[in-house]
Amino acid sequence: MKLTRRLLLATPLAAAPLAMPFLSRGALAATELSVHYPMPSFFKDVMDKLAVAFQKENPGITVRFPAPSPTYEDGLQQVIRQAATGGLPDISFQGLNRLRFLAERDIVVDVAPLLAKDGDPAKAGWTPGILALAQVGAKQTGLTFSASNPICYYNANLVRRAGGDPDKFPTDWDGVLALAARIAALGDGISSMHYRWPGDDWMFSALLYGYGGHMLSADETKVDFGQPGLHALQLLDRMVKVGKMPPLTSEAAFQAFYAGKLGIIMGTTAYIGQFQKSIGPQVELRTTRMPIITPGGKLPTGGNAVVMLTKDPARQQAAWAFMRFAAGPVGQTIMVRGTGYVPSNTLTLHDDRYLGAFYRENPLFRPAEEQIPLMQPWYAFPGSNGVRITQTIVDNLARIVEQRATPEQVLADMTAQVQKLLPRA
User: Which domains, from first to last, does the chain contain?
Assistant: First the structure.
């Protein structure tokens, strides 16, 4: 961790409790829950509404939010420190790809016994596939709260100017790259496209899984990028050479898109709410599914899960009530409407009390819902070097986007570097 990040997370900020009267509800009476969450730009409004709705149904429980962490990685480091020094919150929302790290160190509570006690999870809207997103081995580390998959955003106005039909956006990468090149040729400071590669390995895995690839071998001892990994890197290279993609940071790409100066962005469905609030009048925002790569290809599932950290049996009952509410149909409806993530509860999808009418009336949200059958878990690397492995992949992808190395060179280097960071037998 950089010094500035440590200082940021160490800075004491005043908590903002949502005060509600403590009414007697048996074992849940007079309980204050401390709930940590990341990325307030995405989740602050959602969490505030979630707390109000939960407290209305559970008047004996008050929800208090300590200072949120800026990113998933910061949130992970914060919880790791607190586990060692004290001060853990009762509940935390953690990135799906970091649950393994917490589970292997027994920082999170296995909620499988609580699920079993409540009855059939599927009747509550949690299918085996949904539950699997927050499983590490036999341990149910929590309940998936927000889930996302990568989709394509585009400015219909620039697509028209480039001779394309916004109602018939290309469904394969050849067509997308040809359209991107025509958008770049419009001039006037207009850029073609942005494939969100900085930050983590998620968007690389979207290409790798799209070609049917894997991160590691089945026994997790060897890197297994293989031929699918090479194809993924070659496609990234073609985005630059054929699609004329500039080496923009994500923030620079977003600003260009808001201003009508960027045609296409590939990234998480969670951007929908942010884009709707930020685009200028010259942008006609549309979304569509990720381009098809190969039959049987999959997409990674991003997002987070709500996990229990308190080991106090009395507090665990209140914590479980909050977790069930957040991952239940009411909590999921609040989350989807406020962000753009896809719901992690099947009861919400077709019921007009929740999100049935919402999806019919909001076409921007449909592509991510349509891609739910293609989703598979975001891979979590074993051992203590998961964050370093992620950064190694990101740094190597940058070499392609900046045209400093060939896909073949990057694949060889990335494979060797990641292999060194894996746990030794």
Answer: 3-148+301-377 (3.40.190.10), 150-298+381-421 (3.40.190.10)
